[in-house]
Each structure stands twice: as structure tokens, then as C-alpha cells.
Amino acid sequence: MNQEKRALLAELAQGERVLYRSLHPSSESLVTSSQNLLASVPMTWMSKWPGGFPLGFTRAKGSHVVDLDGHELVDFALGDTGAMAGHSPPALARALAARLDEPGGVTTMLTHADAQWVGEELARRFGLEKWSFTLSATDANRWMLRLARLVTRRDKVLVFSYSYHGTVDETFVVLDESGRARSRPGNVAPAVDPTTTTRVVEFNDLNALRDALAHGDVAAVLTEPALTNVGIVLPEEGFLEAVRELCDETGTLLILDETHTFSAGPGGATRRFSLRPDAITIGKSLGGGVPCGAFGLSEALAARVLARGAEVDLADVGGVGGTLAGNALSLTAMRAVLSEVLTEDAFGQMERRCTELRVGVERAIAEFQLNWSVTQLGARCEYRFTSPAPKSGTASQRASDPLLEEYLHLFLLNRGVILTPFHNMVLMSPDTSSADVALHDVVFREALENWRGRV
Ligand SMILES: Cc1ncc(COP(=O)(O)O)c(C=O)c1O
Questions:
Q1: Can you give the pLDDT at residue 454?
Q2: What is the model's pTM?
């Protein structure tokens, strides 16, 4: 981008910041008066929204949110995937109300028939036989990594550079400019240097993966089937199959994190791409945003875990499990979402909506002659400020442009469209309509026209 365009961008972003403030006095005042909250927000990530403060909301239904100042917005962030089922779908609301009222029982540490139903449904969708529940995708990853180390008797894990799997200590490792492993910039006071627990290579780099696994000390490769937290980085043809083979050759387990790639279809990317993981982790949208997560194991892996059960404490304070994990409310939520909301039909519709949006973005990119790319994975797509679409996490990370991102996000937010604050992700829910997509199309073009049309 030449200097003139960057200077104009800075000026436009400043104009959008001023407009954002003037449109949202009640949201600003909620945040400035929340001095009792750390960083004035319920959770520190919420300070990441563009414009200096996040919106407060009063209503969230389907694909729309109403903010504290009364603006109705189309929500393509959907709680960064937690609300992929749409905000408060009626089937979920009904099921939760029934669970809370009659017959009652939010959490009992007793088993419930809903668990069996959800386990069976997850097995049907993802192809793994044994399931266990957590309260978040982070916990699913954490506990699965422990079980992987337990059965393989190996101490390391392998992740791809700039992947994200929740706040899991072992995963905060990236490759630096000279290809060396280092703690991810910004990693908050890690207990141990994560380069001692983790091997890291680039996504789509089979040679590097082969070399890393050859050490014979990696318990598991933990990866998303496509990286989704640094733009979307799709696997190249045959990459995931080759990862499976390398894992088999070296006695390494393969854990697929489907938390975001669930957007690829009813059985996630695992079913869509016919993948054969040893384990799957998932969370977020599974319970329509009610805290929950799950990990699934193949029959063979489950048998290996249980065979080691006498040596470690799987039934109490051994480091796997939690008091509220598998609670009845989460299970009710998962059952309602899987049976009535995120159904096969719903995924078909979500993907069609997403294709409409992607085609609109592609047209605009071509029209304004931008060197950008847009990548779709089922109901989810991302635009990235580089073309062709990056093949590794590091390449994708290098294509980020915070000023451009801020301008686009604020321009859209000021005109009724919410993008996820962490990147340029747009996600469809079963309620997302063609009219919602059309609004994105119009406002996205306006944002480009405003910037590129004037240079
Ligand atoms: C792929 C992936 N796995 C796991 C997580 C962790 O989810 P949670 O923060 O809900 O535990 C995330 C969160 O963004 C994610 O993107």
C-alpha cells in the first residue's frame, strides 16, 4: 500500500472512531463506569473490539443483536463461534427452561440419559466411538493432551505455528523469522518455557513435520483440520492424509480440534474430508453457547487410556475432569442444539448463505483491484489482505494489517454489521438471511469505495 493510501486510511479510521463514539454513548458509559471489572470488561478479550470500547447489548436473537443505544446489528461474529447455532434458538430456550424448572437439576455429579444421547450423536457425526464432556474447548484440549501423554509415555506435543487451541500452555509456541521455536509473543507469564514441552512446524510443511516426529518423543499432533485463528489456512491436497500416515509411522496420536471447523458441516471437517483422527476436541457452539465441550476417542485409544487407569487417578484429582464438566444443563443444551438446531439441513443453508457472502466479497476484491483473498470453510469465511491465500500460519500472520482491520471493522460496525474482533471472520447461523448477507455486501463495498475510490 503506498503512503498516500495509508495516510488516507489513517484519516478514515480516525473518522470512524469519532462516529463510533457519537453513535454509542450508552455503551461507552457502561464501560467507563465498570471500574469494578478488570480492564472494565467482563473478560479481558472484550477490550479488543475496535473503537476503544465494546458495545453493550440488550437483546440477541437469531442473527441479530440490539446494542445499548438501540441499534440493531447483523452479527457475523456470533460470539466468535459460541453462537454459531444463532442467538438463543427457541429449541434451546425451551429445553433449558424445562431443565431448570421441572424436572430440574443443573449439576448433580450423577449421570443422565442426555449424555448417552449426545455421545451417540457425536459418534454418528464424527466417527469416534467414546466421548467425554468438559466445560470448554480449552479443557477438552488440555485433558486430551494429558491422556495422549499417558498412553504414549512421551512428553512432547506438536502444534502448527500460529495455531490456536484455547488457553492451553503447551500450544503457545510459534516459529520466529529464522525458523526457531519461541514462546508466542504476548504469552502471559507461562509456568515453563513452552519450547520445552512442544515441537512446532508450519502448517502444510510435511518435511518439517516428518523431521519433528522422527525424534520419537511427540505424544500427539494437535491441529485444526484447517487453521481458523489466523485467517483460514486450508490444508493443501493430501496434507492431512499425509499427517495421518506420519503419525502412524511414528506412533504419534492425531488429535483434531473441531471447535471452529465444525462450520464445515454436521460432522465437521472430519466427516467432510473423510479424516481418521485418534481423537477429536470440540466446544463453543455445541451447546448453543451454554458452556460445554467434549473430546472423542477411537475405541482403540479409549482402551489404551483405560488400561493405564490403575496407574493414575482418572476418577478424582489426577488432572483430568472437573466438578461441573458433564453437568445436566450442558448436556440438555447439547442435545437440543444437535437434535433441533445444528442439523444437516441447517448446515446446508448456512453454507449457501456463506457462499453468497464469499462471492460478493470476491466480486468487490476484483472490482477494486485489491490483492486480497477470501477463504470459505462451510459456514465460515475470512478475508485476508494478501493473495493467493496463505499456506501457513506464519505467512497468514504476516498479512495482517491492524489499521486496515480497524477501519473495516469500525466502518461495518457503524453501519450495522458485526465482524469478529480478532480477525476478518464472518460466520453464518441457521438464522442468517440473504438480507443479512446483502447488508454486508453493500456496506463492505461502501467501505472500499470510501477508501479506494478517493485515491
Ligand atoms: C480451534 C479452537 N480450539 C479451542 C478454542 C478454545 O475455546 P474456549 O475459549 O471456548 O475454551 C478456540 C477458541 O477460540 C479455538 O478457536
A1: 63
A2: 0.97
